[in-house]
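Backbone shape codes:
===
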Amino acid sequence: MKKILVICLSVVVMSACADLTELNVDTKNPQEVSGASLFANATKSLVDFMQSTNVNVNNFRLWSQYWAQTTYADESNYDIIGRNVNGRTWNTLYTTVIRDAREAKAAIAANTLLTDEQKRNQTAMCEVVEVFAFHVLVDIFGDVPYTAALGDDVTPAYDNDTDIYADLLDRLSVAAGDLSGSSNMGDADLIYGGDTDAWKKFANSLRLRLAIRIADVDATSAKSHAEAAIAGGVFTSSADDFQLGYLAGTPNTNPLWVDLIQSGRSDFIGANTLGDYMNALNDPRRATYFSNLVAGEVVGGAYGDNNNYAAHSQPGDVLTDPTFPGVIFDYTEVAFLLADAAERGYAGAGNAEDNYNAGIESSMTKWGVDAADIATYMAQADVAYASAPGTWKEKIGKQKWIAMYNRGFEGWSTYRLYDAPALNMAVQAGIPTPTRFTYPVDEFSLNGASVEAAGAAIGGDALDTKVFWDVN
């Protein structure tokens, strides 16, 4: 009887041990995440970062001098160390966007429920998002870890920014060629709902952007890639825009709403830089770009100084809508890229003046300007392509910069590419607009030898060092 009791107890204990292993399973956080979910998270994280105006995360609306600050104007004076802005930028793009895109590709490849066609298209979509993130990193920092990034090497070497761009352009070429047919991505594609034709246009449009970036340093490669991108099909209207539709409730609102409304703070006003240019041109977008105009004009605050909120124009009401779409690439930009390409004589680019006009018209239409006001604006001698002052680069640069108002990163990049328009000296710092971010502090403690070598390779880890394509 005792033996039977012991055996029974042993069985009970063994069963209990088997049941206890279930306690190690996290029922709230799955051990395996689908490729579609990872892709959706990478996409949303990318758009959220590009849209954000949180001073801890994204300072590009300030560095473009679209906005100025009311208090604590450190970011307008290019302090990116105090709040670790460069570190947060680095971490967001590497550990969230790029890592998720890569892990999505691995999960897609392992998914036996997908057809080869669906795997090809989903992988290509992930590729485009990853390429976008790497191109932004290069444009911000210059040389960055690329070949060995996020691999087994915890101290990855930095790749040359020129070489990275060349590879990114090739990857976009392959991705665009792979995009056709069914993706089966559905709602996980927050931008185009799985439409591979739309993704193909985006891949080609991004390829065109990168080609124009390098046109002054590698004319042959730029021409080849730009012409191939145009022939492959780029954005042709605002219906093609790469934008995320946000929701009215947190945590899925536009990040702008969080910082402008939910925070309860009054940190941002229109900068005198943009305001003065728009006022001089009687720009009809002033009424939507900004609120609190005086006699229809923007009252801009001194860039790089502390300014009184109530005494100046503030971000327009449309930007405070939690559902305001998050746009990170649009037809307006493509039109200006085509104007540049046309001036360089690229096949398929069309006429420079027509594209320049299309860019202005597209921007104004999206910001609610009526046709009559658009025509009046474009008829001005200082706006019309034939008579506007400056070289063709200065004409395109100025109008594109104004049109990129809600896209601070591209506004800053446009200024660096064309050296136009002229921006103001930051009041407190007394220095011109920087041309790059310095490397994050953490890199010097975690990857010291590699980051030191990178700094030396680019000519110094300084704010005024230029990325390879910034030669003007």
